[in-house]
Design brief:
Length: 280
Amino acid sequence: MPECIGVKFDNGPKIHYLEAPPTPPAIGTTCVVVTRRGLELGKVRTGVKEVEKAHGHVVRSAAEDDLQAYEELKRKAEDLKWLLRARARQVEADVKIVALEFTIDESLLVVSYSSEKQVPLRVLAAELVKHTSARIEFANVGPRDQARILGTLGVCGDGSCSSTWLQSFNAVSIRMARDQQLPLNPEKISGPCGRLMCCLQYEHDMYRELLKGMPRKGAKACHDGSGTCGRVVKLNPLKGTVELKTDEGAIEEFPADEVSRPRDDAGRPRDDAPRSRGAN
């Protein structure tokens, strides 16, 4: 396996492992690297380690000329982004231009865009070739990649996971929100990208463990000590309590280990209420 160092680029937090030179640069060093795109600038984030596959190699530490060229091309890409957005509006293209990125030798220009419809890419490319000789590559990116590239704030008030540290996007399901007793309101459980919040997955295993042995939501249960019976309307796994709604309409909260399902003479639960979608 090749010896590599982890390098981060400006378009997100993901660490890319590239083959290290004989004298590896120190962590924090900005380097010129070769990737599938060509020559790029990246910042070293890890020491040398063996990985299964390298995605390029480190050429050298960045010189002042490299940094200057990068900044100039970054400004040029920003100007072209607004020009391309204006051109898209002019031709009434239903497309969102997310970002433009040059390699530091201006041999390639990557245009990240988002659209669910057919986009007149030839028209947009024709506008760009007036201002650069770079080869143009279009990439249709999803909502989470948009958040990664643009940088967004999460509901926690900090930078969103996808734009600050997340290395890969795992599947997040509505079941995770149900198990955590969260309101199934899209505005409450969606991130800035419009998809379910990535952080729903972080504590899901803990909630599943805490929910074991608790009666399911919607079932009939009774408090062993007081004999109070009712329907389970809410589970509080962190507190270890269950809220029952009695026939009189009162809501009472009891420790989960003191609540049980009423059973018939054969030991079967007497309540055959259908399992709710939010059940554990």
